[in-house]
Amino acid sequence: TAEKELLPGFHKFEWQPALTNVSTSCNVGIINGLSGWASSVDDSPADTITRRFRYDVALVSALKDLEEDIMEGLRGSGMEDSACTSGFSVMIKESCDGMGDVSEKHGGGPVVPEKAVRFSFTVMSVSVLADEEEEEVTIFRESKPNSELSCKPLCLMFVDESDHETLTAVLSPIVAERNAMKESRLILSIGGLRRSFRFHFRGTGYDEKMVREMEGLEASGSTYVCTLCDSTRAEASQNMVL
After folding, report:
1. Residue-wise DSSP of 101-114
2. Interacting residues of 74 by C-beta distance below 8 A, sequence separation 6+
């Protein structure tokens, strides 16, 4: 049971309003890129080019993983646990990059393309705007935002990162799910009480090629300066002190 709790698809949740063009089912396991979703990796055919979790289901799993940190942050800020059931805000850093050559050199097993691309996300911070308060209070901040341990894999694609058509086909549903979540609130039980969360997404972990896939920009180069914060190039040019 402990292992199941760690995997997306275990916890019950709700979106208000319901996500557009996304199933209301909570118990979605691993989605197979060719043939719908399967309950386990073993059920999928060998020629599958991508496997992923549904974005909202993976975010729920990540938040439940941080449940103790969130509750500790509430107590540490001197806020009444029962008073904070709404007004939570979650900052998500998205990353997408090629993994280079991942082919099996020793032979055996199914033949797969040699290149792979991984899409992942990191919960950067959780803050709350308590009733009758004017300012948000940050109750959780990721101390190692560039660590592999805080980075949650969402989608693994056996595809070359320069294969624009395949990347677009695979990533389009992820983008659609992300856009739907921006317009809704997640209702999830944290610390024994149902609480509402809004999500904000920053694509600070994309390299130059991926920016065009994910953000639809014509020009090359990310608008963000670094992978640790969400400062843009425009802001940096104004804030720079020589």
Report:
1. E---SS--S----S
2. 81, 84, 128, 139, 191
CA distance 105 to 240: 48
CB 49 within 8 A of CB 160: no
The closest alpha carbon to 7, from 152, 180, 175, belongs to 152
**pTM, full prediction:** 0.79
Measured CA to CA, the distance from residue 171 to residue 226 in angstroms comes to 23
Which residue is associated with the tokens 């901040």?
Answer: 141
Structural contact between residues 60 and 199, judged by C-beta atoms closer than 8 angstroms? no
3-state secondary structure (DSSP) of residue 188 = strand
Task: Evaluate if residue 63 carries a pLDDT over 90.
Answer: yes
pLDDT digits (tens, 9 = 90+) for 136-172: 899 999 998 888 888 999 998 888 888 888 888 888 8
pLDDT at 179 over 60: yes
Residue 175: strand, helix, or coil? helix
